[in-house]
Amino acid sequence: MSTVPSGTPCWTDLATPDLTDARRFYPELFGWTGQIAPEPEAGGYTVFLLEGRAVAGAGPPAIPDQVPIWSVYVATDDADLVAGRVERAGGQVVVPPFEVFDRGRMAVFSDPAGATFSVWQPLAMPGGEVFGVPGALSWTELVTPDPEGAKAFYELVFGWHPDGQATESAAHTGWRLGARIVAGMTVPLGDFPADTPAYWSVYFGVADADAAAARAAALGGSILVPPRDIPAGRYTALRDPQGALFNAITLAPQP
Predict the structure, then answer these.
(1) Is the distance from CB of 251 to CB of 132 less than 8 angstroms?
(2) β-pairing, 53-59 with 180-188?
(3) Which helix (H) or strand (E) holds 154?
(4) Helix 147-158 to helix 79-88 angle, to the nearest 10 degrees?
(5) Fold of 9-122
(6) Could you tell me where in the chain the CATH 3.10.180.10 domains are found?
(7) Rounded to whole angstroms, how far apart are CA atoms 225 and 123?
(8) In sequence order, what are the beta bridge partners of 73?
(9) Helix residue spans in the chain (DSSP H)
(10) pLDDT at position 82, please?
(11) What is the CA radius of gyration of the chain?
């Protein structure tokens, strides 16, 4: 069983051409330890642990020329059912549902604007075991040039409803599942070409965003957006040494 309700982001993993360096960079940045899958077919897939609890994964690319990327997984009770909904809503089934050893079933999809995401139907592996604390997945957000299309698509697929607000720099929407905000969407305002690919981004909690940015750079990564304050907290956008984009955020206290 997943540690979060169906329809809620539950896992993230990294596809990287340099798994050895990922096992160096992220543990030094977030205090993780790594647990390598014993099956040879897994290609060295590593589950990162925070104080013994699973928080993220990393493995080799599915195809040779795949760019390094962090992927978002949404929990589901039925991956096949979600695949049918994706197709009916105008998305694409990139990888049909399949079994991952005895751990669970997964599938990879893309929404009509091209943003890729996955689902996880847990068996032995529930997904992430801790969220919203330093070193753990704390937020996921869709960046898209087609917010109206995304609103229609994700409502049909996951039952999400938009809960939005606008700022001077971007239009923000929270995805609401029942009473809870489970993810977000942002549309940068201004010059944002309609053919710009959409993508899902991941945010890891940190105790100090400024210190995390400096540490990432010292470890061979790069700072895309220097630390700055946003309504959710203080965040920075980073790339790892292989170029994978991720974010670090010091979450604001909840009222």
Answers:
(1) yes
(2) unpaired
(3) helix 147-158
(4) 140
(5) 2,3-Dihydroxybiphenyl 1,2-Dioxygenase; domain 1 (3.10.180)
(6) 9-122, 137-251
(7) 38
(8) 11, 118
(9) 19-30, 79-88, 147-158, 209-218
(10) 98
(11) 17
List Cβ<8 Å contacts ≥24 apart for 40-49.
42/101, 43/19, 44/19, 46/19, 46/22
Strand pairing partners for 228?
A: 235
Residue matched to tokens 């305002």 = 189
CA dihedral 121, 81, 136, 61 (to 10 degrees): 80
- 173 near 189, Cβ under 8 Å? no
231 and 252 in contact (C-beta within 8 Å)? yes
Question: Could you tell me the CA-to-CA distances from 216 to 26, 47, 171 in Å, in that order?
Answer: 9, 20, 28
Residue 196 tokens read as: 């710009």
Residue type, 198: A
Which residues are 75's β-sheet partners?
A: 120
**Residue type, position 65, single letter:** D
| 56-82 confidence digits (pLDDT tens) | 999 999 888 889 999 999 999 999 999
- To the question of domain 137-251 being in CATH 3.10.180.10, the answer is yes
Closest CA relative to residue 220, chosen from 8, 6, 20? 20
Residues ≥6 apart with Cβ < 8 Å to 188: 143, 169, 170
pLDDT of residue 230: 85
- Are 159 and 149 in contact by the 8 Å Cβ rule? The answer is no
User: Could you tell me the sign of the dihedral formed by the alpha carbons of 126, 251, 52, 118, in that order?
Assistant: positive
Do the beta carbons of residue 118 and residue 94 sit within 8 Å?
no
Contact between 246 and 70 under an 8 Å Cβ cutoff? The reply is: yes
Residues 156-206 have pLDDT tens digits of: 999 999 886 655 455 788 999 999 999 999 886 655 555 668 999 999 999
